[in-house]
Amino acid sequence: MDSSTLPAVAEELLREIKKAFQESSHGRDTFSSRLKFIFGPSAVPALDLVDQRSVTRLRSPSGRTLYQVLGSSGKLYTCYSSCHFCTCPAFGFSVLQKSESLLCKHILAVYLSQALGACQELSVSEEQLTNILLAEEEDEG
């Protein structure tokens, strides 16, 4: 994770979670209250998304990656962990416009799935990745 995207306390917590899960399967209970404290109402829904294996990392042959998260509504959102961005309306409103949250549940689910090794992997062609990016641009456009 890029240190410019999240406050240091959030980065440290995600590192501790990763370490705890590598050492024991009881890490979720240990860190649940800390996640709620730092990430607020996004924490529990993000953990649910991780439990449901809703996070997929798409990787192209050139090494470019992006994440797709199947939201609780059934809609697929594209997340960019490298720049701390999600295409969901909550991210645009709560994070960007109002600055009420550090991130939405989808981006937190991406970070948690990375830390917990719970991310599904999908190899895609450069053309497929480009088409996903262009489709997102059109949706926002």
SSE inventory with pairings:
Layout: H1 8-23, H2 27-39, H3 43-51, E1 55-59, E2 65-70, E3 76-80, E4 85-86, H4 89-97, H5 105-116, E5 120-123, H6 126-140
Parallel strand pairs: 1-5
Antiparallel strand pairs: 1-2, 2-3, 3-4
Brief account:
This protein has 141 residues and is an alpha+beta fold.
Can you tell me about this structure?
- The structure is a single chain.
- This protein is an alpha+beta fold.
- It has one domain (8-134).
- 52% of the residues lie in helices and 16% in strands.
- It has a 5-stranded mixed sheet with strand order 4-3-2-1-5.
- β2 (65-70) and β3 form a beta hairpin.
- α1 (8-23) packs antiparallel against α2 and α1 packs across α5.
- The longest helix is centred in the first third of the chain and has 16 residues, at 8-23.
- The protein is globular, with a radius of gyration of 15 Å.
- It comes from Pteruthius melanotis.
- InterPro entries: Znf_SWIM (IPR007527).
- Residues 77-115 form the SWIM-type domain.
- This is ZSWM7 protein.
- Counted up, domains total 1
Number of helices: 6
- Proportion in β-strands: 15-25%
Q: Largest beta sheet: what is the strand line-up?
A: 4-3-2-1-5
Order of helices and strands: HHHEEEEHHEH
Main beta sheet: strand number and arrangement? 5 strands, mixed
Which structural class do you get from the secondary structure elements? Answer: alpha+beta
GO molecular function: zinc ion binding
Protein name: ZSWM7 protein
GO cellular component, one term: Shu complex
InterPro entries: Znf_SWIM
